[in-house]
């Protein structure tokens, strides 16, 4: 009886320590999460504030709820509304995602499943381009697209993705493919599948988490891209959201309606947030699985 009671007391103390430790961890995580998410919360609250309230109060709670900044900000001071700018953004973001996924998958499939001369050298060169600053290629690419007469179009933004110009995605897919057992390929070959059928029917279903991760990354990067459209797009009617937001900061009138700009900035965040949270499960699985080699 004494041993049983003593064991129970030890177990109770152990459980108490575990509960205290868990409580401390959750408190720390909640505090850190609040610190990280506070700028977004403040952004939402600031969309309902006046200029004076924005710059004099750190609180995110507005004095009153008024959706006028959203209405006026959406209209803009031009003949185009943000509907046009959002549609312009999706006109090059969606093709970039599609071409990036197709080209990166094909290149990754070649490196992960085939043997060919100078494979290691080609892979090293591919990985070396990850460390090449994008600014190095800006001027040559601009001259190329200018000579081809494709400035003020979305082609310069879309075309590079046809050639798997994102080595990060290729590397991610290669690592994911290496975690898929090769005996699945062999079984498919015995059943009469060729290389393309193996990719489509065997590997692609398993690549779903990695492909969704690539989709989220490419969507966020392309949607938020400012420098690319700034260089290649000059017509107002073709502006994406990133350029439209910069255009909204018009100081020529002497007064900048920051609540309208912040309201449109929040709306510009929504597509990426919706995409991330709707595919969060596959995103985490895809990112964590790319470092595992079977």
UniProtKB/TrEMBL annotation:
This is ABC transporter, permease protein. Belongs to the binding-protein-dependent transport system permease family. The chain crosses the membrane at residues 23-45, 92-111, 123-145, 157-177, 198-221, 261-279. It is a multi-pass membrane protein. One of its GO terms (cellular component) is plasma membrane. GO terms for biological process: transmembrane transport. It comes from Hungatella hathewayi DSM 13479. The lineage of its organism: Bacteria, Bacillati, Bacillota, Clostridia, Lachnospirales. It is found in: Cell membrane. It comes from the Bacteria. Gene3D superfamilies: MetI-like. Keywords: Cell membrane, Membrane, Transmembrane, Transmembrane helix, Transport. Residues 86-279 form the ABC transmembrane type-1 domain. Pfam families: BPD_transp_1.
């Amino acid at each position: 009886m004494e041993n049983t009671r003593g064991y129970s007391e030890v177990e109770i103390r152990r459980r108490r320590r575990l509960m205290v430790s868990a409580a401390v961890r959750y408190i720390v995580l909640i505090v850190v999460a609040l610190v990280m998410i506070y700028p977004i919360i403040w952004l939402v609250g600031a969309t309902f504030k006046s200029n004076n309230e924005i710059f004099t109060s750190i609180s995110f709670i507005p004095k009153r709820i008024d959706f006028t900044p959203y209405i006026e900000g959406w209209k803009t001071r031009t003949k185009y509304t943000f509907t046009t700018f959002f549609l312009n953004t999706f006109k090059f973001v969606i093709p970039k995602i599609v071409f990036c996924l197709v080209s990166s998958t094909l290149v990754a499939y070649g490196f992960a499943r085939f043997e060919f001369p100078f494979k290691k050298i080609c892979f090293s060169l591919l990985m070396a381009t990850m460390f090449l600053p994008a600014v190095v290629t800006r001027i040559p690419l601009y001259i190329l697209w200018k000579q081809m007469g494709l400035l003020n179009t979305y082609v310069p933004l879309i075309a590079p993705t046809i050639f798997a110009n994102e080595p990060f995605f290729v590397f991610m897919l290669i690592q994911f493919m290496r975690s898929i057992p090769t005996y699945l390929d062999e079984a498919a070959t015995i059943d009469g599948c060729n290389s393309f059928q193996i990719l489509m029917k065997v590997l692609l279903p398993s690549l779903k988490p990695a492909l969704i991760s690539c989709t989220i990354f490419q969507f966020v990067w392309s949607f938020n891209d400012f420098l690319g459209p700034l260089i290649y797009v000059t017509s107002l009617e073709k502006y994406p959201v990133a350029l439209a937001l910069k255009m909204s900061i018009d100081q020529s009138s002497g007064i900048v309606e920051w609540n309208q700009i912040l309201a449109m900035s929040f709306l510009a965040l929504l597509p990426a947030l919706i995409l991330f949270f709707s595919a969060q499960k596959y995103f985490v699985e895809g990112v964590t699985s790319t470092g595992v080699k079977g």
